[in-house]
Automatic annotation (TrEMBL):
It comes from Azorhizobium oxalatiphilum. It comes from the Bacteria. This is Cytochrome c. One of its GO terms (molecular function) is heme binding. Keywords: Electron transport, Heme, Iron, Metal-binding, Signal, Transport. Residues 1-20 form the signal peptide. The keyword Iron applies.
Amino acid sequence: MKRMILAVLALAATTVAASADPDVAKGEQSFKKCMACHAVGPDAKAKVGPPLNGILGAKWAHFEGYAYSQDIKDGAAAGKVWDEATLNDYLTNPKVLAPKGKMAFVGIKNDAERADLIAFLSQFNADGSKK
């Protein structure tokens, strides 16, 4: 009986942790992995990858002058938008949405870390100012 109670408590703790609100500060820490290729903020410029200002709600291939992969260009032509669900899928495994894409990053497997990163990115307007 004790084992069953402990198992239920462990499951409940896991469920609460998984459903916790995203943490912007943790997302900022997570973004450090992205900074070799991407930037955010008022002075963000294209690097290996495009700046990610205003990414949530933006059309695919939205940053003028960046040489996107054909997969991303095709998504833009089809009217795809970077909503939270699509960005979550892309961050889980970029090669699923863009098999021939340029992003060499293998993805973020941890659900909470992805949610934190998306929360961090969502605070930036297209001009790099914070909402």
